[in-house]
Amino acid sequence: IPSHVFQNAKNASTYVAGQIADLIRQRSDAGENCVLGLATGSTPVSVYDELVRLHEEEGLSFQNVVTFNLDEYFPMDSDALQSYVRFMQEHLFDRVDIKPENVHIPDGTIDEAEVANYCRDYEQAITSAGGIDIQILGIGRTGHIGFNEPGSGRESRTRLITLDIVTRRDAASDFFGEEYVPSRAITMGVGTILEAKQIYLLAFGEGKAPVVAAAIEGEISKSIAASFLQDHANAKIILDDAAAEQLT
Ligand code: F6R
Question: Other CB atoms closer than 10 Å to residue 97's CB: what's the count?
């Protein structure tokens, strides 16, 4: 699995945003849509900043862009501080010319009884859009991609999951205390993610170094969902020096 190590997160993010922008423009020239799978969290923030810069300064249009986010806490109001709807609006969608109807983020406000149907519809919407062209991923310290915590299999699909204790601890500051972090989330499955045509997994900082090494050099297993990327024909790992520290 090819890994590209950059001096810092900024350079790495500029590269990834450039790859995304190239495909958006190429598709636009052909009169076609570009379907992006997007992540939240601290890792992709500079990618979104660079996409916004390209929109403002270099005329990059998002009129032909369709997006599907990986996950959302459950339950979660869309206007809550920690909601991924709000995150995406603040970091990207409110700052570019994307069509609101082209944006898809798992809905943390639906009734629990509706979740299974909702997840099936989410998968169907991805398929109807033609599948994901470029999927952006971060990685959690548990090895999760999306919120596919240890135990998530290669065939898993969009569903309601229980968050790992490590993940809840890492989210504690966002929620002003671990006890306020939701215990569940809706996430695309590993199988859903692996169907993307091109995948970029980004990881920055020394805190990610052990899980990055385990995911890309360790055995492929359910205990680290990101390890399934080793089997993807078109996945790239994008690192800064610190996150690459434990690679052999
Ligand atoms: C977020 C997501 C998660 C994060 C991961 C890393 O949509 O799917 O897998 O990418 O938890 O989070 P950060 O980037 O905050 O370290």
Answer: 11
